[in-house]
Amino acid sequence: MPPNFIRHIIEDDMQTGKYDGRVVTRFPPEPNGYLHIGHAKSICLNFGLSIEYNGSCYLRFDDTNPGKENIEFVNSIKEDVRWMGFNWDEHLYFTSDYFERLYAYAVELIERGNAYVDTQSAEEIRQNRGSLKAPGTDSPYRNRAKEENLELFQKMKDGEFEEGACVLRAKIDMGSPNIIMRDPALYRIRKHRHHRTNDQWCIYPMYDFAHCLSDSIEGITHSLCTLEFENNRELYDWILDALDVYHPQQIEFARLNLSYTVLSKRKLIELVEGDAVSGWDDPRMPTISGLRRRGYTPESIRNFCERIGVAKRDSLVDFALLEHCIREDLNKKAHRVMGVLNPLRVVIENYPEDQSEEMDAINNPEDKAMGTRKVPFSKVLYIEQDDFMEDPPKKFFRLGPGREVRLRYAYFVTCTNVIKDETGKVIELRCTYDPATRGGDAPDGRKVKSTLHWVSAQHAVNAEVRLYDNLFAVEKPAADDDFKATLNENSVQILKDCKVEPGLGKAEPGLACQFERLGYFCVDSRDSAPDNLVFNRIVTLRDMWAKIKKQQKFK
RNA sequence: AGAGGGUUAGUGUAGCGGUAUCACGACGGGUUCUGGUCCCGUUAACAAAGGUUCGAAUCCUUUACCCUCUGCCA
User: Fold this and answer.
1) Cα separation, A249 vs A126, whole angstroms
2) Residue A526 catalytic?
């Protein structure tokens, strides 16, 4: 991990012996949605730091709001953290495990005269809170006797009040310039079944109360969270001091923002529930499960998290960096194969009708240990429609009438004839091949300007390929009030008649490979079947020709 | 003067009083049976103004701009 301000703090603490050299962090998600790449940043930070400093990192579910949380989310979060490559060992915790202790802390706070039961309505409390510039006013119930508060809180716990009838509040300062400190609520009544404690409780601690005390109970040393909790730190410190308990150190860092997508749980939930995507694991989603299904590897995501760094300033990370990370990883690891997305039939006129032969192809030029494979060649082939132009512009090096190109690992072929349908669309090419160029090299040393990928028509396997693009059409969709209006209408394009080399027929779900000259693709883990192959495009290869085309268009 | 944070190339990030780092991107070139990879090069930044100092991105002051906070969400 490169240097960052949090590491500096930890290193200082190691020097001064602040926590006796211990480093204990935690990743504390609320199980009310799926994890996304912003969480990946936090996971890599918390687990990464604990590994680097020989400490530990706990996984704690912050499950204090039973109305929004459920077990499906708990399970998906565990799966995602594990998939990211991190291990919480035996340290799997739930805030709900501490409900009894938290309740005892609340009682103690009342006994110390630091909390009271307020029977104002939510509306009244809001009105009495004041504003950013004006102080609030004390609740009429603020100075209830200790015994009365104790009795009322007991009754809250026993279910004698309706939801909203009252709350337990910290007795701090209604005039505090920090609004968080104006007697914040600590406990509220929720007559809701909790996914772990069932109907055992009808009062639930607020995040601010539960979170800092959970950190304290667990002996967390460095409690890392995002910037929006900076204002809350004063309250955590107050609670911990009022109770005179172990005091972790909270450090805030900037949350991740990624261009062309959204990373707020609220917005992601809206996309899922509004059917803008097919689910939490839609390959266009920035969720960990979406990225996984898309074909991103844990290594690439971890690498990305390392490169974006950790700081306090708000930022917007280029999506291109994530793409760079997956290309870099897959370039080393992915098998090369040939697949044609938009097939154009090619007949090699001088190739024997019933002949076919096996060509040797390299699986990965970056790693010769990955070996070679045989690819069948025959008289009728498919090449990419984009690889032929009847009237090629400058700098188009691929096939055209009368041109010679190399078919990768096979032969040099020359286009001799172009066949069109009645609308003028090119539907077939006639070519001749040079038998002396078998394998792809010309004995006379002549060169061609381009090498094309291809598949043999009779041997090819059919596949569906889904081409993905950015979910949003603008860099900062979050800036828009109606963020859904900026969804990219062409974020997915489905191609049904793709042709891939026969070896892919038995590809396992999740397998990632490079379709040469096109990009990285993976077998969809949800929809692909042996008789119905489905590939997701993870990312395109960097594409010089695409850039040249763009430049030519602007000229 | 409501409080708390922040501001370094297009983007992200390092720097902790002594030549402004690295990565991505963009642009140009070389190698190449992938217009991929790889290699080489170019581009481009300390928000502003004062002050302290032999010397300031770094310390001090002022200003500007940005973010967060008025849930019985987290």
Assistant:
1) 30
2) no
Report ipTM (2 d.p.). 0.97
Q: A376 CA to B34 C1', in Å?
A: 19
pLDDT averaged per 10 residues, chain A (length 555): 96 95 97 98 98 98 97 98 98 98 98 98 98 97 98 98 98 98 98 97 98 98 98 98 98 98 94 96 98 98 98 98 98 98 98 96 97 98 98 96 98 98 97 97 95 98 98 88 92 98 96 98 97 97 95 76
Look up A30 and say whether it is catalytic: yes
Nearest-angstrom CA–CA distance, A453 and A187: 65
What is the DSSP secondary-structure string of A492-551? EEEEEEEEE-GGGGGPPTT-EEEETTTEEEEE-TTT-BTTBEEEEEEEEPP-HHHHHHHH
Give yes or no: A255 in active site.
Answer: yes
Give the strands of the sheet with A56-61, arranged side by side: A24-27, A56-61, A92-94
Asked whether strand B has any atom less than 7 Å from the CB of A292, the reply is no
- Tokens 């995002």 label which residue? A226
Question: Residues 306-365, chain A: which have Cβ under 7 A from strand B?
Answer: 307-318, 320-321, 324, 327-328, 331, 336, 364-365
Can you list the alpha helix ranges (DSSP code H) found in A17-98? 37-52, 71-83
Nucleotide nearest to A228 (CA to C1'): B68
